[in-house]
Amino acid sequence: MSRTGAAQDAADGVVVVGGGAAGLCLAHWLGKDPDIPVTVVEAPDGPLRPAERTWCYWEAGPGEFEEAVVTSWTRLRVRGPDGSAVESEPAPLRYRMVRSGRFEQLVHSRLAARPTARLLRATAHEVRDTPYGAEVRCTGADGRPLTLRGRHVFDSRPAHGIPPHRTLLLQHFRGWFVRTGAPRFDPGVADLMDFRVPQPRHGLAFGYVLPLAPDRALVEYTEFSRTPLTTPAYEAALRHYTADVLRLGPLTVESAEQGVIPMTDARFPGRTGPAVFRIGAAGGATRPATGYTFAAVQRQSRAIAEALRHGRADVPPPHGRRQLAMDAVLLRALDTGRVDGPRFFTDLFRRVPMERLLRFLDGGSTPWEEFGIGLRTPVGPMLRTAAELPFLARREADRREADRRVTDRRVTDRRETARRDTGRSEESPR
């Protein structure tokens, strides 16, 4: 990667802290303007750099990062607890998978070709406002202290803890990249939610299958609940799902991912000072009711770059107030048990055209469409929940919640390469 060279003590323009999806998306859009110098601060190789992650989103037509897309699907499916399937082609939308390593390589190569962009490998310790803008205090890859100065700083590092909220559920999961001994998957169809798994006492659970080839797929077990599972519990759930539900037969687990995503009505600050802004999941880019982040990050990055191009320091909210209000009602209804999660989502996909529903989940629907979608939900429980929300106090996360470190970072265990037979119960090495 070019321009990682000697550390410099001054950076005119913009400093972006963090080289994940949010940071690199913003750097990409800012780098298109030759009048906006941009420096990206990425953690050096080592424990602070996240492992390989998977991001998924839907989009119409080829997007800005199409070269980083591993594969995509034109048809999507949801299965109810009884096995009934809702399958549709949400044209013109396609469901896309991006792997973080490929995405980073693409954006790095684009930044390298732009003379006003710079990538710096350093560990950021402190971001603060100053009379001239803001500064980032770092330690360079060579161990030397370094201070970067700019007119604006956009910080994409994970937040510490959750702001005051009324509802906090966790979307927690573990996924296997599997290879089967015989063709078992339809590469043209992705399973967004498969509720043919045992349901927890509180919350809901589902399988998630993204075929990569007739004999390869990402298979995940996911829960929406208050507390993550242990890794052995996820492993047991995945063994049951792949063996007893999907009936995949003998398979090899080539790698694994595990993570926790907060689903909350907390208000994440977009600005922490006159010249310091939060972006990405820490700035509220994660859609509370779904856990999806990548598409919102792209929209927000384009809007920030456009604002700076016109001399405005502005970070528009990643989601509209109307969408956040609806998400707050759904999260509360799920958390209280007023709605049955598997039935709620299955019926929603069955009763609403999938293209319209995906636009709704992405914040692109009209108020009239949203009203129609609302009529296809359990109206009584949802109205009761909406009526009580204004009277509920927002609370701080307790110590146990804070210790969960609920971020959207996925942890990949590349050592999970042992061949698994569906009839065997031993754990692979960690």
Automatic annotation (TrEMBL):
Gene3D superfamilies: FAD/NAD(P)-binding domain. Pfam families: Lycopene_cycl. InterPro entries: FAD/NAD-bd_sf. Residues 398-430 are annotated as: Disordered. This is Lycopene cyclase family protein.
